Amino acid sequence: MRTLDIGSRTHVESGATTLATCWKITRTDAAVLGFTDHDRTLSFAGTDYRPMLDGGDVPARLGGQVDTGEVLGVLRSDAIAEADIAAGLFDGAEVETWRVNWRDVSQRALLRRATIGEIVREDGQFRAELRSGQQALNHVRGRVYSPLCDAVLGDARCKVLPTHPQFALGCDRQLGTCRGRFGNVANFRGFPHIPGNDFLLRYPRADDALQGGALFS
């Protein structure tokens, strides 16, 4: 739940509001751009918000779903060029969305923080997808424990050379294939001895050899 300051709350409750939406875009190269759906430039907290964008509504959801919204804008400014979008300068940029009283910009509220996902260019406009903070949970950090190898055949972690006579046959990322086809077990990047569901559901039986031997041989 968002808490408004006294001035903003009084303005909203008055019933006659002069509100605008502002977007602050901070690119991964630290460049900062400001835009608004108002018809004149608004300035606060050291950023000028130039009239340019029209944003879409972002639904609020419960739980861990990734909220998405869209911001539309005409490519008519030197601040955003098609070449910059094509070069990926706006990929992963952080976007702050503000609701501002354009008559008194000290009355404002931060609605959400998001990152820019997919950007589509069509008919002289761009459509930027905004992804909420939950998007970060979809990125793999570190290693994934799996019986299968997570390297790519021939990459620096796999180390099998493209000149290997069996290279064209590919790899299904299993330990047996790595051993039998490429003789490359030393560089196998999986965890083949992780217990599976069969181990979790296993229970002692009368004919089991319970002599303390290794589970895996």
Describe the overall structure.
With 217 residues, the chain is α+β, with helices and mostly antiparallel strands. Helix content is 12%, strand content 28%. The chain contains 4 helices and 9 strands, in the order αββββββαβββαα. The protein has helices at residues 6-13, 82-86, 175-182, 197-200, and strands spanning 19-26, 32-36, 42-44, 47-51, 53-55, 68-74, 94-101, 108-122, 125-131. The protein has a 9-stranded mixed sheet with strand order 3-4-2-1-7-8-9-6-5, with no helix packed on it. A hairpin with a 2-residue loop joins strand 8 and strand 9 (125-131). The longest helix is centred in the N-terminal third of the chain and has 8 residues, at 6-13.
Please tally the β strands and state the result.
Answer: 9
* Mean of all residue-level pLDDT scores: 78
Name the helicity range.
10-25%
| Helix count, DSSP H or I runs of 4 or more residues | 4
Low-pLDDT segments = 57-66
Q: Major sheet: size, sense and barrel closure?
A: 9 strands, mixed
The arrangement of helices and strands along the chain is HEEEEEEHEEEHH
For the biggest β-sheet, the strand order reads: 3-4-2-1-7-8-9-6-5
Radius of gyration: 27 Å
Distance between the terminal alpha carbons, to the nearest Å? 56 Å
Overall form: elongated
**Given the helix and strand composition, which structural class is it?**
alpha+beta
Strand content: 25-35%
